[in-house]
Amino acid sequence: MTSGGIGRRLVSAWTAGVVLALSGGAAMANPEPDQLNMTKGAAEWSPYGMHMVALWVCVVIGIVVFGAMFVAMFRFRKSRGAVAEKWTHSTKLEIVWTVIPVIILIFLAKLATGGLTTFADTTNSEMTIKVTGYQWKWRYDYVEYKGKPVDRVGFMSKLEESSDRTRQLRSNLDPEKIQVDGYKTYLLDVDKPLVVPVGVKIRFIIVGGDVIHSWWVPALGWKMDAIPGIANAAWTKLKEPGVYRGQCAELCGQDHGFMPIVVKAVPKAEFEQWLATQQDEAKVQQAAQTAQANPATAPQG
Amino acid sequence: MANAATHDHHDHHDHHAPQGFFQRWVMSTNHKDIGTLYLVFALLMFFIGGAFAMVIRAELFKPGMQLVQPYFFNEMTTMHALVMIFGAIMPSFVGLANWMIPLMVGAPDMALPRMNNLSFWIMPFAFLLLLSTLFMPGGGPAGGWTMYPPLSLQGESIAYVVFAVHLMGISSIMGAINIIATILNMRAPGMDLLKMPVFVWSWLITAFLLIAVMPVLAGAVTMLLTDKYFHTNFFNAAGGGDPVLYQHIFWFFGHPEVYIMILPAFGIISEIIPTFARKPIFGYKAMVFAIASIAFLSFIVWAHHMFAVGLPMGAEIFFMYATMLIAVPTGVKVFNWVSTMWGGSMTFETPMLFSIAFVILFTIGGFSGLMLALAPADFQYHDTYFVVAHFHYVLVTGAAFSIMAAAYYWLPKWSGHMYSETWGKIHFWSSVISVNVLFFPQHFLGLAGMPRRIPDYNVAFANFNMISSIGGFWFGASQLIFLGVIVHCVWFSKKKAADRSWEGAKGLEWTVPSPAPHHTFDVPPVIHDDELAHGNTDH
Questions:
Q1: Omega of the bond leading into A136 within 30 degrees of 0 (cis)
Q2: Overall pTM surpassing 0.90 (yes/no)
């Protein structure tokens, strides 16, 4: 066996891997076993298309360049009696392989600039949610919905208990057993998910409470760092109801790996009902707290 | 070419290595001995850093926490990176520079030999300081090699890490000054700048990068130190500071740093491929110009590490375009290597095999780099295993493979013996297959949604992590073969190396005897254009 032959086989294995990557796994929104590629996502804005274009551009260039290399390794080997030629440069060739990549890059840059412009535009949103990252949980505050401020709806969201028990060192509990609706949710489920409406442009204000975190739900198509002292903005408009899972993506301390995010997208009417209940609960709670804080004032007053 | 024999009107100690282990290895001012010290130190660090990686891959072998606490896992990821970057890759390049640059430009030694001794001996102490933190009550650094505040400021060992980084920086800057002084002042008559081997060019440019950016890192970590202990608020939002400021300063160092770890590799590959293709490097001037352009561009792309921190759109667009531009000179280099092979008369000894693997696998790392450059797509890739796969393709199958190629290529010159070609090839095939088993599946993990630097993961990521871990253990074990080949070559090989160890080898280093005598080029060699590795560049 010659070295060139083995090398060639390796490359064809990679090509096979890439082809597989392109055919599978795009339909699901949450991580699936043996998933090879990015998900298309569930939101209106998604970098999936651009990712695929860039991937194919790389695959084609790779086939051309590596192909040329393997032809060279086969044809121009000493053992086949090849004699080294004398030429050491060619201005024409060098111009060609500078200009062609530049053209490809301009095409990719145009595509990416378009994607970026759309993503950066958080205007005309109908809803605002503030996301705060803490070591090691998320806080969600509903700020405004359809132009009206939301009254005191906010909660902490952290890793749910069965995952938390299982993930302890040498717990001997089986991560496979943790399931919600048949989906294995080990480390990807929380006690209280973020509930959002479908078909509404939601603006997220993302901040850090202690250290830097990063709020990432792959199905939404982006991540955004949660940094102390800085308010970052991003937006999404979800197309379909569903449960979309993600995790903190910035190293934030020892429990960084145990800081999941769950976004539950529901139809608008259902969401409005949910929001109303939450607001009522908040009012009741507030009343109870006021009463507790000033127990003596009422009878004396 | 004039054989640079030592001649005899000097004192006797000019001809021989100093007697005694301590005199020779601790007090050394000889570029070859210091080069060896650097290389041995780097190899040791490669195994220490590799051991940390084995802990990481063992914990990630299957879902659930089996071996280590999450905090210790973070210490391992942080230390693995710091040791591999500052302890393995950079010192081995400096070792190669020390050994080869004087030989390649026809100089008797480095320009500043005593500083050379100092710049090496600082390093073992820097790493003693860094590694000792693992045994301290508060534990080692666990905030990632980037040491982003405010997280890194929560660590107890930050002062040790900062002082270790300062020492490494001082060592690197002294090494870089030495290399620049040697290249600019010590070239043999007739060795014009544009006749220098590409390896020497790549190091000249790298040395300027080092001098430009190591002080920036020193500044950034010093600010961390004062934030932690002297109540300054550079990065503390509550005191009017800005955590993102640190990232800007860090990556202004950090991006050129990644080119510090690849430009010398470009030089090495540009020496080896012409040798085994028996054809001068294609487009010598274009190669030099490409290295220089990449170095320049490396200074204006730092924020592509920060696409997700919420930069203004204009900044994202600028850094995206500038980053994408790097693909052009990098592409030129790859095309030129392929053209060097085209029309050649190739043989496939171990250094050539590693070089060919370098070109292919580094290019794959370049492809994922191009994808990462697209800012909107980076919102998905950023801080995932896709990034881990990307930079390991660049740093392991890029930088580390080039160093292995260099070690096999120049071992006969260093030791005077030929290494075992059979075991060299076994090492190559074992490494090249396992490294792909190790890192290729990580692309899939990242795209599927697995963040980097997590000690445990959802069961959906289980299979590829297991494959990756198997590849990791296999790759780690393969490097023991490398160690075996080196030990065998230096102490046990019976096969003497010729002066010109490889049939197609050109350049001044092949005109001196193997092993290279302790002192070479006491009389400047005469340069013949057709003896240069890249051929006659005048036409």
A1: yes
A2: yes
